[in-house]
Structures are given as structure tokens and as C-alpha cells.
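Lab notebook, bench 4. Continuing the backlog of folding jobs that were queued last week. Each job is logged with the same field layout so the records can be merged later without manual cleanup. Today's entry covers Aspartate carbamoyltransferase, a 325-residue chain. Filled in by technician R.K.

JOB TYPE: sequence-to-structure
TARGET: Aspartate carbamoyltransferase
LENGTH: 325
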Amino acid sequence: MKHLLSAGDLTRDDAELILATAGEMRALADRPIKKLPALRGRTVVNLFFEDSTRTRMSFEAAAKRLSADVINFSAKGSSVSKGESLKDTALTLEAMGADAVVVRHWASGAPHSLANAGWSRSTVINAGDGTHEHPTQALLDAFTMTRHLASDGGGLDGRRIAIVGDVLHSRVARSNALLLQTLGAEVTLVSPPTLLPYGVGTWGVETSYDLDSVLPKADAVMMLRVQRERMNDSYFPSVREYSRRYGLNARRMATLQDHTIVMHPGPMIRGMEITADVADSDRSVIVEQVTNGVAVRMAVLYLLLGGSEPAIGADETPTTEETPA
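JOB STATUS: finished
OUTPUT FIELD FOLLOWS
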């Protein structure tokens, strides 16, 4: 596999290889020096046309921990703000010798165009395209669930996952629905009718408008942010009404099974889709998702750019000029 554009492109074997490799990379988080020489001499470009904190910094940390050279590109202050096309930007990166391009773009399908139009020979990784997909977020979510819910080294087969909130505008929900089913989980999307996308019936998931009926059966609950910046109409009566019907609070958390975990891809709107006491509770793995995101993105970069040998092997000692990311 040369590119990672969609969670739907991953077979179960592909996904399990990435998660297993991420498990090896995750061990680095507890080491004094969090670095491997695996991608020394490679160049990774973070090409971000939308604002991002967690994803951009996560990919940057992942690439640096693998000893790659990193170039961070932001549309603001670049030639894109002067009208440069995606094609010309891609040709510029090609001329600079980029080995991998991590793309976040406001237009759904932009990473696919970059990968398939012949503008560049670089590996392309989709870091979120419009309301379409965010495959590495789905991978880190699956990795986090596996660490908490998989028994005896097994997978997520038969586990019930509830994804709650603004599914219509969520690329995270789409990628998770695809990947979690590939890994054998049962997915239920919980949302107001106005925030479920057209054609969701073809996704192979269950849908519900009643959060309280779904929560007691869930093994993991993923809350989604209401993406007001993508809304040009009123999708629910008020913030208070949305929170009353679809927000996760202490009362609802008390109905969860003892082992159930609470997740959120971030950024959170505390007090709307999730209350502060739930976000900061022992059930919450939201901060852990960020740590796991670096490990998963290390695994993706390693496997796409160099993974012909074990990720953590004999030659792990950084050169003297290398410092921890």
C-alpha cells in the first residue's frame, strides 16, 4: 500500500498490522529518548489547509521520533493565499523531494486528487478532508479501544461502540464506522435526525435517536463535537436542548457498564456534548488518545515509507546530533 486515503481501503490484516506496529511504537513513550533511526534521510511534509492542533503536532512528533526531516506547511501566509492551486503546490513539494505528504484540506477528496492525479510521486496520507474521512484518527481510536477492551490479546469482535453527536459533519465518525466494522465491532450512530447524513443506511451500522437506550449496552462511547463552523442552517433548537438529549453527563455515565470507556476526538466543547466531570473522570481515555495518536502515526509513516524490517530492532541508537522530539 502506497497511500492511506480512506479507512475503507484497509483490510483487516492491514489494520491489524498497523495496530501491532503502533503497539511497538507506543513503548517508546516511556523511554527517556523517544527516537528511532527508521526514517533517517526521509522528508515528511505536513500540508495543512485547515487549522489543526492535535493532528498536525501528532504527525510532526511521529515523523521526528522516526528521525525524518519535517516541513510544516500552512495555507495561511503561503502562496495558496495568493491563489496557487493544489496542483502547483504538489509540484513544488515534488521538486523539494518530499517522500510523504500529510494532507488536511477543507475539500472532501483533495488527498485522493493529490495521490491519483499524477502530480507527485510522494506517499499521501489523509489527515482529514472536509466532512469525508480521517483514517488515522480512526486507527488511533481503534488502538485505544483495543488496549482497554480486547481480552486475552484478541480484537474488538462483538464489542459495541456508540458514536454520538454531529455525524453529518464528522469525518471521524465516517472513518470509525468503516474501520471498526472491519475489525469486527458493532457500531451504533446516535444523533438527532437532522445530523445523520443521507445514505447512512448503506454504512452497515445501526442508528438511533435515543442516547439513553444505547448507553447501557455500549463498551465504548465516543462523543463528537458539534461542528458549527460547517453549518449554514439550524440543525437543533438550542444548545441547551442538544445537551439535554445528546450530552454525556454524570447521570448518563452512571448507566454505563463498569468497563465502558469514554472517548472524544477533540477539540471538546465542555458543557455541550460532554460535561467536565465526565471528560475528567476515570472512564475518560481522551488524553490517552492523544498519546496513542503519535504511536499510530509513527506506525503509518514507518509502514508506508520503510517498513521492510522490524520497527524496533537492533539498531535503535540515535546519532549524537539527534535529540528527542
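OBSERVATION: Residues 308-325 have pLDDT under 50 and may be disordered.
SIGNED: R.K.
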